[in-house]
Design goal:
alpha+beta; Alpha-Beta Plaits; four-stranded antiparallel beta sheet; 8 strands; two-stranded antiparallel ribbon; globular; 117 residues
């Protein structure tokens, strides 16, 4: 896949303990993005944060949390991300979904087996 120029970034903030049919919600979101052929998706685990419930979640030793904040970042064209958002709208029942228009400068890799030299 080639992606360069105007694009859209979806960032979905959820909790690590959020589930969909007994499996991690973040995994369901990433696998749906992959099945739809989107350019890429990554999950980032936060070390501390809070959301709408205003409860602090932290990885600090004295208050270990099993519900750390996660950010799922997905990038593709506006048309493809709109289709994806329609597909996952029912999944995120608690969290935050933001959309940014971005400009892709470089999108490389793509070859099976590493492609780097």
């Amino acid at each position: 896949m080639r992606l360069q120029g105007p694009a859209r970034r979806i960032t979905i903030f959820i909790g690590e303990s959020d589930r969909y049919h007994h499996k991690p919600l973040y995994a369901e979101i990433v696998h749906r993005a992959h099945r739809q052929g989107l350019a890429g998706a990554s999950v980032f685990r936060g070390i501390e944060g809070f959301g709408a419930a205003s409860r602090i979640h932290t990885s600090r030793l004295l208050s270990l949390s099993e519900d750390l904040p996660l950010a799922i970042v997905i990038v593709d064209t506006a048309e493809r991300t709109d289709q994806f958002l329609a597909d996952v709208a029912d999944l995120v029942t608690g969290g935050l979904v933001i959309i940014d228009d971005v400009h892709v400068h470089t999108y490389t890799g793509g070859e099976q087996g590493g492609g780097r030299r």
